[in-house]
């Protein structure tokens, strides 16, 4: 009888951990088992092998779900087919030519749901408007773009060109190979077409070319440029319903994996918050609004600052406070501890902060260089009585977070999801303790905005 009970507990633990992803850290799965009184001491391998739906990988550090064991739908709604990429606004079309995909699925978000989703509201939204200057890419790449790329495909986000390799691109989060071998002459021709004959690689190694949002970066080897990465830039209008009502008069941090839509969302928030306010935007790489001629239609009445030296981004933040009377300061990509400390100073002066950072929220919570944005962390020694799973050292938040709301953007099979963590101080503490948190999730499906309340368990270090 005990074996039947244990099997049911194992399946229940799996259902808790794998609702929205196919793999999870071992320590998270062990915690779910222990919550159900399953003895895991030196028995994890036996527990996994006793099932036909789990296996261990990555030197037994990750548990993977090998088949679907779920019987209950997580969203009980009837809606039009979801947009494949809400940040772009419409589903992707097939690529020109005959590309072959190098992977079979989009990586799942590093989140596991511990409770079924509950739909709170479904709100009609206007259609998204997507603008992309494809002619500028054709001008730079020439026949390479015309013969091999479908530039109208809104799932196309990056183009990779490396000498001695076939050209590849990222489409809907997957890397796709093309039947086009790249030679040194291809790279040289592309660089010659840029203003100034090539990117300045000594600083940020980013060039916004033309009057567009497209970004080019060089790949160098021994000081020689032998590769190019082009990020396809698009401006998207119509995302306002996603964050309206949740960002007004609050310090907002956008986080998520690279190329998931943080900058796109930042543009729309800047356009919205600049209505009737002085908003100063630090656009160090030029990626937010590109050429200054784009400013009005992309970021509204925001005043845009571009530091000459990317390493002095924090100095531009301070200059805005001292000399330009801002109501709101926005910055794309916090990179250093110094920048986070300046943001803390600004927030203490009753100026609203909006910023973005690479990495999901759990990455930031455990990042010693940047986690001060969420209140920092310190280690504390626990007594035997309160130790969790035998751990006598625990992390706790050391100060109040700079940001009042964190928007964690993730890519799923249904498109982009916007996870709003609203009580940042309390929820960061719970993430450090390995506890689940309550979040609000919004996503656009067709012409509807879907809002849910979810209980989420983020992996803990």
UniProtKB/TrEMBL annotation:
Where is the secretion signal located? none
Entry protein name: AAA+ ATPase domain-containing protein
* PANTHER family named among the record's database cross-references: KINASE-RELATED, P-LOOP CONTAINING NUCLEOSIDE TRIPHOSPHATE HYDROLASES SUPERFAMILY PROTEIN
Single GO MF annotation:
ATP binding
Q: Which CDD domains match?
A: AAA
Region of interest (Disordered), ranges: 80-108
Q: Where is the AAA+ ATPase domain?
A: 248-413
């Amino acid at each position: 009888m005990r074996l039947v009970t244990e099997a049911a507990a194992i399946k229940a633990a799996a259902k808790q951990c794998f609702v929205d992803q196919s793999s999870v850290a071992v320590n998270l799965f062990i915690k779910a088992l222990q919550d159900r009184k399953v003895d895991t001491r030196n028995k994890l391998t036996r527990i996994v092998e006793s099932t036909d739906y789990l296996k261990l990988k990555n030197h037994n550090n990750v548990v993977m779900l090998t088949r679907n064991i779920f019987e209950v739908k997580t969203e009980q709604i009837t809606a039009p087919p979801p947009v494949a990429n809400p940040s772009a606004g419409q589903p992707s079309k097939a690529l020109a030519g005959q590309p072959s995909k190098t992977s079979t699925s989009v990586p799942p978000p590093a989140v596991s749901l511990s409770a079924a989703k509950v739909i709170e509201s479904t709100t009609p939204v206007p259609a998204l408007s997507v603008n992309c200057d494809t002619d500028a890419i054709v001008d730079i790449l020439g026949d390479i773009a015309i013969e091999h790329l479908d530039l109208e495909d809104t799932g196309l986000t990056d183009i990779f060109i490396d000498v001695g390799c076939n050209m590849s691109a990222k489409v809907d989060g997957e890397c796709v190979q093309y039947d086009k071998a790249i030679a040194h002459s291809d790279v040289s021709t592309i660089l010659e077409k840029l203003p100034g004959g090539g990117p300045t690689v000594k600083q940020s190694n980013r060039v916004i070319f033309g009057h567009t949002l497209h970004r080019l970066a060089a790949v160098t080897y021994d000081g020689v440029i032998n590769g190019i990465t082009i990020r396809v830039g698009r401006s998207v209008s119509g995302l306002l319903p996603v964050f309206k009502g949740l960002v007004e008069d609050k310090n907002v941090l956008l986080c998520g994996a690279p190329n998931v839509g943080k900058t796109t969302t930042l543009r729309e928030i800047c356009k919205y918050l600049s209505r009737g306010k002085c908003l100063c935007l630090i656009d160090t790489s030029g990626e937010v609004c590109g050429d200054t001629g784009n400013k009005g239609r992309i970021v509204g009445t925001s005043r845009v600052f571009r530091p000459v030296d990317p390493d002095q981004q924090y100095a531009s933040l301070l200059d805005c406070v001292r000399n330009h009377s801002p109501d709101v300061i926005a910055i794309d990509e916090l990179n250093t501890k110094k920048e986070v400390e300046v943001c803390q100073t600004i927030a203490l002066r009753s100026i609203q902060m909006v910023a973005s950072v690479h990495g999901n929220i759990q990455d930031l919570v455990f990042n010693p260089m940047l986690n001060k944005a969420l209140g920092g962390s310190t280690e504390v020694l626990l007594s035997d009585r309160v130790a969790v799973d035998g751990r006598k050292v625990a992390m706790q938040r050391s100060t109040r977070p700079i940001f009042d709301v964190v928007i964690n953007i993730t890519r799923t099979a249904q498109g982009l999801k916007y996870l709003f963590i609203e009580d940042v101080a309390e929820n960061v503490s719970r993430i450090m303790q390995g506890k689940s948190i309550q979040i609000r999730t919004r996503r656009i499906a067709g012409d509807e905005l879907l809002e849910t309340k979810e209980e989420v368990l983020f992996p803990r270090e």
